[in-house]
Fold this protein.
Amino acid sequence: MDPGCVWPWQGWAGRMPRALECYFLSSTLSTRLLPALYSVVLLVGLPANALACWVLATNFRRCSSAVFLLNLAGADLLFVLLLPFKISYHLLGNHWPFGDYLCRAMMAFFYGNMYSSIFFLTCIGLERYISVAHPFLWKSSSWTKGKVGISVGIWLLVGLGMSPLLLRSHTHSISSLNITTCHDVLEKETQRFFGYYFLFLVGLGFGLPFVLMIISYSCILARLLAKGGSHGQVIRVLALVLLVFILCFTPSNVLLFIHHLLEPTGCNNGTYISYALALVLSACNNCFDPFIYFYVSRDFRGWLRDAGGRCLRGLEASSGRSTEKTALPLRSSEQSQGCQAVCPCPGDEGV
């Protein structure tokens, strides 16, 4: 192994025995299980998020409740579009043939998706709090503009936070295996830099939003209990968002923090292998988010049902006309418009 390089599971000072130095890169877990799991995320996440983006973008100007949801769907769609590169990387035995700059982009999009999703899920929770505590502010047009501004600010913040991943090289050639890795093997100086970087990233990108979500949800529950009555739907929405947040993002961020905080020495690869699996769980967030849209937003459910109903009726009408061998130059145009149309916003009922 190159003495100037550090394997991520070694920390900043460790040395791994040569018999085990390539265990993770050549293991079945890395070359078979991980690409299989990421393939499931791709097959589910790509159509689900593409549909969500289409439905939300079509109705973006009609309903303010689509602002944070559309940004979340857009981040997820960008992520799944890059998954084929990561899948092929693992299938090729952790060999990266696409060049250093695309490796940098992959890492930036990977972590950028994680933390942008965290921020937008936090915004959805805060939006629920405002809808309960300040309903008139929530309905106002100024709040709609404010949500657009917040979304732009989040993208700028995430872009700034991911810039170190774009500025540092992540590829390294391993002659003994005849492969070029992407982020799995780093130069000592680069590993030391990313140690501090990821500690800061976990604190700001996960710790702070987690605290905000707990505070906002506690305030919502306190207000609902004070008002009395039945608020089961709101509580279920909050529980769902919080469950997805904890399930998808807590394991990977906690393991990432522990890995860089402990600075392990010797053959201590258990944390990194667990972290690699936890990253797959973070990627599964891309599959869960579209179901959050459907469950959280009554507007989204209405748009989806209406679009599906119109397309189904259009297909049935097209099939009937084909059977009857009826000319339809004008009707074909009407059918296309019906399939593309989405129902009017049912009163901006909120997220």
